[in-house]
Every structure is written in structure tokens, then in C-alpha cells.
Design goal:
The complex is a heterodimer of chains A (about 110) and B (about 120). With about 110 residues, chain A is mainly beta. Chain A has strands at about 5, 10-15, 20, 25, 35-40, 45-50, 55-60, 65-70, 75-80, 85-95, 100-105, 110-114. In chain A, the strands form 3 sheets. In chain A, strands 2, 5, 6, 10, 11 and 12 form a 6-stranded mixed beta sheet that branches. A 4-stranded antiparallel beta sheet of chain A has the order 3-9-8-7, with no helix packed on it. Chain A has a two-stranded antiparallel ribbon with strand order 1-4. Chain A is globular, with a radius of gyration of 13 Å. By secondary structure, chain B is mainly β. In chain B, the strands form 2 sheets. In chain B, strands 2, 4, 5, 6, 9, 10 and 11 form a 7-stranded mixed beta sheet that branches. The chains are: A mainly beta (about 110), B mainly beta (about 120). Chains A and B meet through β6 of A and β5, β9 and β10 of B.
Chain lengths: ~110, ~120
Amino acid sequence: AQSVTQLDSHVSVSEGTPVLLRCNYSSSYSPSLFWYVQHPNKGLQLLLKYTSAATLVKGINGFEAEFKKSETSFHLTKPSAHMSDAAEYFCVVIGTKGAQKLVFGQGTRLTINP
Amino acid sequence: GAVVSQHPSRVICKSGTSVKIECRSLDFQATTMFWYRQFPKQSLMLMATSNEGSKATYEQGVEKDKFLINHASLTLSTLTVTSAHPEDSSFYICSARRLGIYEQYFGPGTRLTVT
């Protein structure tokens, strides 16, 4: 079965500095990977997705992620944090090949300091 | 496009009563809908998967008689929490998926509080 591990439960950065949220995956085949963002008491919004095309994926709001098979990683980055980026971020993988279920990481809470 | 709504956004009910939560895909046909539960400061836990016109598939440990799911049309799925107890208090989120597309579109969630 597929799984993802988010390496940090909480990340805190200053406004204007880079953001790095780390995610490692485990998969027996080429996975489909996603990053979702959840603002407080809200549903989830898709930031970006990797589905075996380009390894560097650009998403919304200036976020991007790079799929690295050799490192089994799919880290989320942003060059310059904004106050509005403060939220919970989830790394997600498709559960099994051809299946429908999403498998969620534990989440990383991003705090932005003024 | 691909908007999913949930109603109500917030509900408070008394212990022992039932409450229904609706999930609608507003601008697409959702062949599959999913129901998740999220406890404070935790990740989402999949409760069940429902395909239009068929019975829902529940995850291990989820009581199907307590959490009734109906997916009667391609745009509507409902979750009914029966005989609610305070431990059922949680944030319930639905998502919807088009046929042949991996991506799930999430609703805004429903905060259930059982007193």
C-alpha cells in the first residue's frame, strides 16, 4: 500500500522568507502525488499534483514541488512566504494503482511570523 | 468549475438525535463521493466511498449503521449520523470525483457538535 510521511508537524517562517514543507512517499509503482492546503475550519484546496509528467510541478499561489524518485520525496516549496499562507498542508498519495482512495499525510501546520 | 458544497456548515444537535449532512457537486457529475472525518489538529480519515446508485463502501472500523450514506444522484450524497453521541462531534468533509479523474474536489466541511 502507498503511504506518505510529512516530516514536520509544524513549520514556522518569517514573512518574505522561503518555505519548505517536506514529504516522503512509499510506493511500489510510480505514484500520483498531491499537495492540499486547509485554512482553519475550511475544506481542502488543491495546490498542485504530480501524475508522472514533469517532475517539477508548479501550483497555485507561487507554490511548487519536485518529484524525486531517487529520494522518494515530494517536497513543497515557495520562494517567499506571505501571511495568507498560514494554514495546514497535507501531502497526499493515491492509495493503490487504479483505485480511488487518497492517503493523507499527517499534515504540517505552517505559521508565518510578521 | 468543480465546486462542491456542503450543508449545513455547522450543526449542533442533542445526544440521541440524528443529523443529516448534504454534499453537492454544483457544476459537474460526481460518479464517486467520499466522506471524511477530521478531529482537531489531525489529518483526514476516510470513512466511506460511495458510488452513485450503489451501496457505500465503509472503511474498517466505521459503523455503517451509525453513519448512513446515500448517493442517490450524480450531484448529491448525504451522510446521516444516527443516534449521535458527543464522541461523534467532529469536522466532516466530503469530496467528489469525476469518472476517470483522480482528483477529488473537497467541500468546505461541516462542524458537528453533539451536546
